[in-house]
Each structure stands twice: as structure tokens, then as C-alpha cells.
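Kindly inspect this today.
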Amino acid sequence: MNCKLISVPVEQGQPVPGCALGPEALKGAGLAAALRELGHEVVDLGAVPAPQPRAMPVHRNHLRFLSQVSAWIEATAEMAYAASADGFPIFLGGDHSISAGSVSGLSRRAAEQDRPLFVLWMDAHSDFHTLDSTTSGNLHGVPLAYLCGLPDFEGYFPPLAAPLSQERVCILGLRSVDKAEREALATSPVRVHDMSAIDRKGIGPLLETFLDEVRAANGLLHVSFDVDFLDPQLAPGVGTPVQGGVTFREAHLAMEMLYESGLVTSLDVVELNPTLDERGRTAGLAIELVGSLLGKTIIGKKRAA
């Protein structure tokens, strides 16, 4: 597989400094070498060039760095669209606002190929606020709502060439959701599997049902992996930790299943903050999980045909 590493060093979407260093932390911890060891070609495309803030009217809500984050989304979308013409793009964040760009570029490419794009959002948070509903003003909490075509983004975020079909989105590992997000999700066909569902049913059956639908639709699958998907005792290097997250084995099982499905065509790795990490422990675990997603197994398992 031709893996294309794309750094998006953005941290203005959240309040804790440090996650802009995430891409270099992942590279420094050996991401490229780990992928090459699995037999993949790796091309480092470098960082998305830092854009100038976009001109826009003042928003009535208190939104942090709106013009800067919007510019990063636009620039990332263009790079995602170009990189997805061939190969397997891997977007290294930065905070989760980068996915508003990566997924919008990938969705545009999928529409041109007449293939449905599915998204697996592995995250403690739903990121389903609109610009009007967010109370924190932190724009890493809005990308999924934007990608799904919810209102209130017009004139502020770049126009979407191809919004996601909400029934093709699955949030996995949710355990922190605000009231406005809960109300929006209650009327949305977005599939939500919180930690209670994982505890009751197991991560394997929940994920397999979603993968079956991607397979039946001949879909493309993008995985947006937020490091706070994991329990913070395993992965302390995040700015928004939430207790009670996914365990080491649950996370590896999910990644192994994704590899065996043969359906994944692109990946985000976001919200790693090396200034909060403990001797690179979170970066190392993230690389292990990306390795599992791309073929590292205890014994040689075959991928789906």
C-alpha cells in the first residue's frame, strides 16, 4: 500500500497548547518505519502549508480562531482531494478540526468516483456541535456536524462539495456529549455506540455490523481516530481526557477487524499532545494501533477478498 503521510499542525481548534506538535511526535516515534516494516511504501508529503485566515463576517457566538481554523479546513480539503487520487492518505493532527478538511476532500473524491463514503468516528466526543450550539467556542467540537451538512456553517466554513450521508457515519467509543449534541443526534440517523453499548455488546459485534453495511454498499471507509478514544490511563497525552475509555485489547481488536475487512481507504490520527504525554507512551500506542489497522497481527490473518 502507498501510504501518504500528511501533517496538519493545527491546535487553534482547542484550548490546550501542544497538539500542533502531534505530527512530528508520531513521526519521531517511528510511524514511517513501522509502516515500512509491514511492507508498505511510505511517502511523507510534509505539512499542509499554513494558510492565511479566511475573510468572513463576525459570528454572533464566541468562537475561538474561527477564520484561522476555517482556512486550515479549506487548505486540508484541497490536499486531501489531491492525495486521495491514489494511495492511502494518513492525516496527522493536530486537533480534530482537521477532519473537517480531510473528510470533505475525501468526500469530494468519492463522489467523483461514484462510491459512497462511510466514516468511522473513533472518539470520546461526538463533535456534533454547530457554530451556533457550541458553548465553549472550541472548533474541534464541530467537524462532524459540518461534514454531515448541519446548518449554521454557511459563510464561515468552506462550502461542502459532497456532504456526508448521516446514515453512513458511525461514532464509536462516545462518553462525553453536550445537551445540544445529544438533541441533534437524537433526530439524526448517525449511528452512535457509546461505552455502555461496548460494555454490553462488545466492540466486535458493533463494528462488524457497520463494516457489513460498508461492504454491501461497495463503500469507501475513512477512519477518524482521536487518541482520546482510548482510556486516559493508557493514553495520557491528550488535551481532553475522559475516564472510562476503550481498553488496549478493545482498541487492537477494532483495528485488526478494520484491517481484515479490506475496506479502509484513509485515516486521521488526531489530538495527540506530546507535551502531556508520559515518555512518549501515547505516541507509541497510537503507532501500534495504526500498525494493527494496516496489517500488524500476532499470526498472519488473511484480509477479506
Observations:
- The longest strand covers residues 2-8.
